[in-house]
Write a structure and sequence with these properties.
Elements (H helix, E strand, L loop, with lengths): L4 E2 L10 H9 L11 H14 L3 E5 L2 H11 L6 E5 L3 H4 L4 H6 L2 E5 L8 H7 L10 E7 L12 H13 L3 E6 L2 H8 L3 H5 L4 E5 L10 E5 L1 H13 L8 H13 L4 H16 L4 E2 L9 E6 L4 H17 L2 E2 L1 E4 L2 E5 L6 H15 L3
Parallel strand pairs: 1-11, 3-4, 3-5, 5-6, 6-7
Antiparallel strand pairs: 2-8, 7-8, 9-10, 10-13, 12-13
Helix pairs in contact: 1-11, 2-11, 3-10, 6-7, 12-14, 13-14
Length: 351
Amino acid sequence: MHDVVDLRSDTLTLPTAEMREAMARAEVGDDVWEEDPTVKRLEAMAAERLGKERAVFVTSGTQGNLVSVVSQTGPGQEVVLDLDSHIYNYEVAGAAVVGNVQMRPVRTERGFLSPEQVREAIRPSNIHLPQTALVCVENTHNRHGGTCCSPENIAAIAEAAQAGGARVHLDGARLFNAVVALGRDARDFTRHVDSVRFCLSKGLGAPVGSLVCGAAEFVSRARRVRKMLGGGMRQAGVIAAAGVVALERMVDRLAEDHANARALARGLSKLPGIVLDADGVQTNIVILRIDRGDAEASAKATRELVEGCAARKVKIHAIGPTSIRCVTHKDVDADDIARAIDSIREITTRW
């Protein structure tokens, strides 16, 4: 059990002792010159793990997605993606500002476009219309509660996109959560996409960084865009070393986070005023809705719940007026989950 139970995000994980030691001992060089041996090792590991030719180490998931989009589109083109996707909602419109591309968001049921939606969204050849250049898929899906898009669904989406002349980018911020949850090889998810990006700094526990993977020509363009964005790093092996440990040691243990998330969901679903589909929790994200009869009362109760939990040293995150997200990770154990449920029970039973 920890002094503070922090369920706001899996980005709050602390590097392990093994990561800190690896960072201290890392062999380094200038990565812009592609001379950092630890970065090169990490990139090779990532490319091999995802079945792609090459990879490039970037500072963040947001930068990785932006690099991927800009490298595969041109000004005035269009990107098709889910309405609730991270790229559309939480990346400061970077693709529009830097890439001069237009977003075409589509509302989906679980966060994933169907092949039919892709075919409908791709623009026909017409002088009045932008050209559809890219289709983005997010896996697992943040705002839909860590839902997983199966390899078969990704393949179907990619087939529809590529038939319409568009490339496919997989925003795999939490891709390895899907890998573990569905018991599939990572390459099954990436085989049919043109680019993929995954985070080291979420469930894998590294302090910083993401990898962008794809064909050699794409990665060369991505490396150039990374430099344009100010993301060229020098002796980056110091942080890449933690990423090596993350890929070697931290993937299989994601199953523990999923088990803790399911336990949390089962406990919270029984409490008054909380609406939650416990059976729908697939990975490490639990999203609950507060229902106190009307919008104003529900919003007030949501604020009270977040503040009341904080007073009990349990941190949860409101993602909307009546919605709360809880995310499990390596620094939250079973005792912490029980404590979080007890804290929320104390508050909700007074409603």
